[in-house]
Amino acid sequence: MRINLTINGRQRELEVSPHQTLLQLLxxxxxxxxxxxxxxxxxxxxxxxxxxxxxxSSCLVLAPTAHGRxxxxxxxxEEDGLHxxxxxxxxxxxxxxxxxxxxxxxxxxxLLERDPGADREAIRRALGGNLCRCTGxxxxxxxxxxxxxxx
Amino acid sequence: MGPVETPPxxxxxxxxxxxxxxxxxxxxxxxxETKYADDLILPRMAHARLLRARHPHARIKAIDTSRAxxxxxxxxxxxxxxxxxxxxxxxxVSQDEEALSTEKVRYVGDAVxxxxxxDEETAERATELIEVEYEPLPPIMSIEEALAEGTVRIQExxxxxxxxxxxxxxxxxVEEGFREADLIREDLFYxxxxxxxPMEQHAAVARWDPDGKLTLWSSTQTPHYVHRxxxxxxxxxxxxxxxxxxxxxxxxxxxxxxFSHELVVARLAxxxxxxxxxxxxxxxxxxxxxxxxxxxxxxxxxxxxxxTIQAMHFRSILDGGAYGSYGVASTFYTxxxxxxxxxxxRYKFEGCRVFTNKPPCGPKRGHGTPQPRYAIEVHLxxxxxxLGLDPAEMRRRQxxxxxxxxxxxxxxxxxxxxxxxxxxxxxxxxxxKHRRLPPGRGVGFAASSYITGAGLAIYWNEMxxxxxxxxxxxxxxVAAFCGSIDIGQGSDSVLASVVAEVLGILPEDIRxxxxxxxxxxxxxxxxxxxxxxxxxxxxxxxxxxxxGLLLDAAAKKLEVSPAGLVARGRRVYLxxxxxxxxxxxxxxxxxxxxxxxLAAAGSYRPPRRGGKFKGAGVGPTPAYSYTACVAExxxxxxxxxxxxxxxxxxHDGGRALNPLLVEGQVExxxxxxxxxxxxxxxxxxxxxxxxxxxxxxxSPTTLETxxxxxxxxxxxxxxxxxxxxxxxxxxLLPLIPAIANAVYDAVGVRVDEIPITPEKVLKxxxxxxxxxxxxxxxxxxxRVSFPEPIRVESAFGQPADLSLKRE
Lengths: 151, 807
Fold this sequence. Notes:
The complex is a heterodimer.
Chain A: E1 2-7, E2 10-15, H1 22-29, E3 48-51, E4 54-57, E5 70-72, H2 84-91, H3 101-114, H4 120-126, H5 138-148
Parallel strand pairs in A: 1-5
Antiparallel strand pairs in A: 1-2, 3-4, 3-5
Chain B: H1 26-30, E1 46-52, E2 58-64, H2 66-70, E3 74-79, E4 104-105, E5 111-117, H3 120-128, E6 131-136, H4 143-147, E7 163-171, H5 174-179, E8 183-191, E9 203-208, E10 214-218, H6 223-233, E11 241-245, H7 260-272, E12 276-279, H8 282-288, E13 295-303, E14 309-319, H9 327-336, E15 347-354, H10 370-387, H11 391-396, H12 417-428, H13 430-433, E16 441-451, E17 466-472, E18 478-482, H14 491-503, E19 510-514, H15 531-558, E20 565-568, E21 571-574, E22 577-583, H16 584-595, E23 598-604, E24 624-635, E25 642-652, H17 659-678, E26 684-685, E27 688-689, E28 707-712, H18 735-747, E29 750-751, E30 753-754, H19 758-769, E31 775-776, E32 790-792
Parallel strand pairs in B: 1-12, 7-32, 8-30, 10-11, 14-15, 18-19, 25-28, 29-31
Antiparallel strand pairs in B: 1-5, 2-4, 2-6, 3-5, 7-15, 8-13, 9-10, 9-12, 13-14, 16-24, 17-18, 17-23, 20-21, 21-22, 24-25, 26-27
Helix pairs in contact in B: 10-18, 14-15, 15-16, 17-18
């Protein structure tokens, strides 16, 4: 079936199969690899993308349901260079292996869009669906908090 | 590349080392550009899937692949018969694995056949069309079953029917020590196995080039060992095999073995003439495993009234799963490091690893040492209570002596553990909290030590453990080449930082080229916390050679002595007259004109400082790292839930080359330890993993991870580059016993079995309510026919012999 959607600001018209997931569409069809697969069942958060500004596990979203909607992957965060939250991740040591990083950045961006002054507890709650096995979350929270507080 | 704006005032002050600098690979990761193995796409690439056994133990009678071959889109189907009859395994003493099983399957998940097809879905469907006729054999699913007489054998080698390894060593006369003790205590503990759960599922891509050479890209922590294994199993000269480790999306030990899928894609690529990729599913990652060994432990310690250890006797039985993997080393590691944290003048260790029909266990962060550390730290907590002593103070008084030897002939260099203990006791308010918090709240203390790289390579050889080549181009660009692989721990950044410090430039001026067996000198791999110290020393040596050439060439031009010059801030200049000098690039050009192409190699092999007895190979290292930890928890008496509230952890990893990265390693270790302490377990029912998914295999999220107060205690170790030791493993070890001890402080229940689940806490509370012993844990230690111990004189208290320097 044919769908229209916008990915990182670019409109696309694509042929998809009914059972294809949005993650498969991004990775296998379009070669957009910044969404990662960590579990394939919507638990780990590595495949998080923003669907009309809301974080979703793209491995659980069927591609046809993305018809007419806006998809943002982590590549879409950059405008003139890195998004300040990406800068904060680099500066605060929030990245180790980096596999969870795109999903966490997007989840955090969506939170801060909704609640720009989110405190550490709010950030902690918002990131509860994104697993990271490297960092113990400490420096991730530091980075998001620093950005939220304009540091 | 201009000069750095503010060069440090004093030339002796380090410019890069010790600074909180970003990781050199962080930029690629925050924009999602880093290419992990599954992100690789090659033209005409085919996709592979493995068919895995559904029986835990069975003979393979016949395999019919005809229906799979007939499926449109299938390019090749292979079984074990398509490989030379060559077995492999990470350790030379345990060559017991096959790329695809030929005669038997030994656990649910053992690979028996593989398909390459035009896409993953077709490959998956084709595997379902392969018919395997099995003759089921009785499965052996526990330590007790493995030790029973007259059962069916899983492997045809080892120290007993289903015993892989038996070890028995005694250093000094422990019975004499027990006679001198005022209190002797014996305890039993069990530590359940757990998976590494890396975020990235293992993946590999193989390609054969027209000249008959193989390239394999793989998410591996040990490209060098994969290189050797591919050459061995495919019967190729090593020179025809190139292994490139892609950035690893989390390893923790789980990507340190050569795996079936790596061999399978290589063979399929050869047969199909196409590149072939295989990415494991999450379920397959649970079955590929190589994770934490379940270990049953018995420990007996004799102490004097003030808690001073006189002798310790420790026994472990490891449930190894179906194959050897690193198991022989794991077995030794459950006994080797008991003597490195506190003074243990006499020590006896008996260890046993059994085979069972479960996924093979191997190294997970702390490799073989978190289990005994948990046992001993809880055991000492009980001893302190029995003697009416403060458990932190009792331990502090018997921290090992720096620059001394242990009973089992291990050489300790620096040790900052006393300060670590003081710092966490102070920061946590330990003295005000221990045994003083209201019911349901408690604090626990524990400490630990770990190696900074194994003293011996996995296979015996006289060569270096790592090598670095540094090259400078005419524009002043610097490239550093090393076989090391960044698994998130920051090895690329360490390489860049060390070279930058020596050459007086910045990490971002350096291109690191790593983990490519064609392009880079061998590094044994990202395991045993070896990379920072070993690669760092090699990098320092290589960079110092080049700095020598640069300073010589610049000195001639400036007509001064090279001894008066320094390389700093992207310049080479006179120490006493910083205005007189030149840019780094100009110095490089002068040096190239004078000496030819600017490239230099450095390499490193650890000192040979172990004992001379059989089994002395596991335990030695250039330097030991130390950690002390206090955990505060809340325990809900209604639900049995243990909630960690705050963790204070002080870590001696030598000089922190980059404190930001060291803290990251400490925090990550704390987190992983919490998961093991409270929830993670690799458990089986009827041969099947009970919970092989991220949904059911519980691991801590942000909501279960408390605030971590990290304190870095810096020693300056003579063995490490700029004084560095290790950071990635030792901080995991004390977490688990600290939580167990905190639970006891909170509710008076001893959970002598990991993980400390709500069910176990409730059971203990129930027993306590009934006036029974409030303890949950193993009740007996099975009979094991340990051999007569190898008796070795205790080296306890002897001074370290540092004349055995690096060779």
